[in-house]
Amino acid sequence: MDEKSKTLRLEVITPDTSVFNDDVEFVLVRALDGDLGIMPNHAPLIASLSIWPLTYTKNGTEKQISVAKGFLEVSGNKVTVVTPAAELPENIDVKRAQAAKERAERRLENKAENIDVERAELALRRALLRLDVVKTFSGK
After folding, report:
1. Which three-class secondary structure state does DSSP give residue 32?
2. Domain tally for the chain?
3. Domain residues for 34?
4. pTM above 0.85, yes or no
5. Residues 99, 123: contact at Cβ < 8 Å?
6. What is the pLDDT of residues 106-135, one digit of tens each?
């Protein structure tokens, strides 16, 4: 079995940049209806993603990317994730993520009439995701 048949291409893109583009052995994402594990030569698939870490395995090592919703397509031994925001652990600004978390928590605690609760909850989830990915995979 050649090396190429043991991997698949993973590409994570945002409106601004390509965050990740490399061959990996396995991809795990959280879709709106549950977790999806994708191995090489997976059947074609399209899914909506939740705010959750995308986990991938490369050279036997598990790593994560912070993904804030989006869509996933599997086609031709390639996984493409299109998301409004994604960050590798080493690129996450911990102070900024912590400040966003605290800001969202304050908004939710104050319960002012003019607050968009859903937006504040989503901001909190994104901040917590970023902090979790950093803590788990960068050692910061």
Report:
1. coil
2. 2
3. 3-87
4. no
5. no
6. 888 876 667 788 888 888 888 888 888 888
